Every structure is written in C-alpha cells, then in structure tokens.
Amino acid sequence: MVDDVIDQLKLVGYVPNTSHVFHVEMGEEEKATSLRCHSEKLAIAFGLLNTSPGAALRVVKNLRVCPDCHSMAKSLCQ
Description:
Layout: H1 2-11, H2 28-35, H3 39-50, H4 67-77
C-alpha cells in the first residue's frame, strides 16, 4: 500500500530524506525503508485507497511531522 504510493512518487522525483534517521548502523536503503512506516504515510496511503479520485484528504496529527513525510506530502500534491 505505502510502497506503491512511494514507488509512484519516485517516478516524479521524490527522494527519501534520511538525514533525520539517526541509526548509524543502518545503510541508506534501510533508513529509507524505516521511513515507510511513519503514521502520516500510512494514513495518506489508506486515504488514497479509500476515497474517490479528487476528494479532499486531510490528515490530522498532534505531533511534528518529520521532513521526509512533509516532502512526500508536497510531492503528492503536485
């Protein structure tokens, strides 16, 4: 679900921002994979699959959004 959305976004230029993943023992690919589990991405993917095309999608969160989730949402809106 999230993998499909991210793979499509990569085709239009989205690049995972792993600069805020602080696990030094992880490689870049592992860091990018760990970013796929963020709740914002899961919520957006779920919303895209369960709403009609063109419908507004609003995700509410009471914590800060990481830079990668923010850039993914920006890429999705273009």
